[in-house]
Design goal:
The complex is a heterodimer of chains A (339) and B (317). Chain A is 78% helix and 0% strand. Chain A is an all-alpha fold and 339 residues long. In chain B, the strands form two sheets. A seven-stranded mixed beta sheet of chain B has the order 1-3-2-4-5-6-12, with helices on both faces. A six-stranded mixed beta sheet of chain B has the order 8-7-9-10-11-13, sandwiched between helices. Classes of the chains: A mainly alpha (339), B alpha/beta (317). At the A-B interface, α4, α5, α6, α7 and α12 of A face α1, α2, β8, α6 and α7 of B.
Amino acid sequence: MSVAQISRNEAQAPVEQREALPLRIVRRLANSRELTLFVLVVALALAMTIVYPHNFPTGPNMRAVLLNLAPVGILVCGMMLLMIAGTFDLSVGSTLALSGVWAGVVSGWWGWPAEAALLIGVVVGAVAGLINGLIVTRIGINALIATLGTLTIYRSLTYVTAGTGVTPISDSFAEYGRAADPVLRIQSPFWAMLVLVLIGGWLIARTRFFRQFYFVGGNPRAAQLSGIRVDRLILIGFVIMGALAGIAGVLGAARLNSAVVNAGVGIELKVITATVLGGASLKGGEGTVLGGILGVLFIALIENAMIINAVGVFWQGLVVGLVLLFAVSLDRFKTAGRA
Amino acid sequence: MGSMLKSTLIALGMTALASAVTAPARAQESSFGPADAKETYYWISNKANLPLFVQYDYVGMKKIAEELGVKATGGRQVAVVGGWDPSLTESVKKCIEQGVPTVVDDGDLPASGRLAYIGTNWTQVGVAQAKKMMEKVPNGGKLAMMSIINAGNMREAVAGFKAYIEANGGGKYNIVSNEDDGGDAQKAAQVTAAILAANPDIAGIAGFDSESGAGIVTALREAGKNPGDIKVTAMEQTPDFFKTAKEGWVDGIVVQNRELFIYYAVKILHDYNHNGLKSAGLAAADGGRPVPDTLDTGVLLVTKDNVDKVTAALGVK
């Protein structure tokens, strides 16, 4: 290569590195999943507001969207923590049902106070999470297999506990799922989710203890060598996940005033989809609660928008699947950018 | 050694939890009849624990097992298959090819070669709901439907509803939405809320799976509607759900007489094995049909007019 060629290449380099503005915007968005999702949520909401001004941006519709995303939103907080640590829990739907049914039994059949029923439901969820954590960390069974197993075990225990479920539970218990704030009139499951998201988001982003989950997910061996008690941390993650599934379960049962034994069937895939969409990597070490909740909100808005748009029911799954693939493709774009 | 101890402890812990969990059980038995019965009849369903089935279908299972002195159990030899999933067609075909007398209930699998179908005519379920809907919405308007979209029987109901409305509605009705609730009341509530947003002037919603009705009513309550604002027709769920007809939230609840499903399914299989009747001189083993091809259990519509009788009989407070 001649000197003249070298100097020409050097002169061209900065010009080649300066990307076109649209490309830079896309790359910037791809680098921040939260920002991407925020833009997508705003764009979708704006588009729907313009096209369906009398249907989409109405109080009742927004309240319904926010209320209905609450169970998945609560579960995403725990799933995000686990996925940051490089693991996950497939039994969340069954844990949710088991917790709800137990709360139903305590309040509806035994006549105990609603508060005791709520507490016992959450404790049942936490114990289920503890068992998952012990199987994964102490016996060393892969989380996929372990929680696939407990998924069926907990569902079976739900059937054994209550047969057809508990309906109705009690009016005092139902109040915990139906009470709404006087201003926005959004029911309690949404507010519970919001509180959990804010606390969970702050803990994971700001506290040293929870930031250890990123180290564990990024490189478990290095985390272990640096003194982090990896197994203990993952165990705690599973307990938190179980307790959150318990909260989602009892609030869901309270909302319907009915503990349904087949509640939460298939919800685990919805939760993992939202968590991955929200920035979690299946390899661990990445993701935020904010991203996760924006993922849930984005999917909820898409589902709502599809019905308002009268998208045929057989096409709706295709749209949700394409959204997930879109999220994965953003990851590839980001990786290419780093390379 | 240490890990074995831990494993044992975990297993013990899980057993303790399971025992504790089962303590309050009012769980329904899923196997009936004498333990030493000479014949066992199996009922197979991929949703054997659906509250609706446990609440009603198992009653018939228990009754027929006691009546015939056979064992009837949710669980191969002689089978009754809940046939609302069309993908079961090949499995039933295989049963018949291997000489296992098989009937289907709840949803028909006509291409499977099954001996008989016992259950509701789902087209009539759709028609019953459509008639009630037209009665409650006499001036016409927008209607929506909700079901488990991939279930063959519900597709029949949806088609029956639609066909009846189109043929008899005089063009006054517009079916604006046909949605999937996945057999989950919370999802049904979510879908209903979106239908209400898309169609604020919706006149009626018809639900075709057992969880649709509970979800629709939940969403209507949450949207601040009053009973009767939007007309609702639905399928039976738990006994407590009948209260929604009393309160005016639901205008017609279709009861399938599900107690008859497994009862007659096992009876037909028992007859097939024992009645010795021939058709065209042919015994069952030679291809004769000693049992009926279809047994329609009919439908009963629970409305405000007869709901008191039903709730009283079921002990619903």
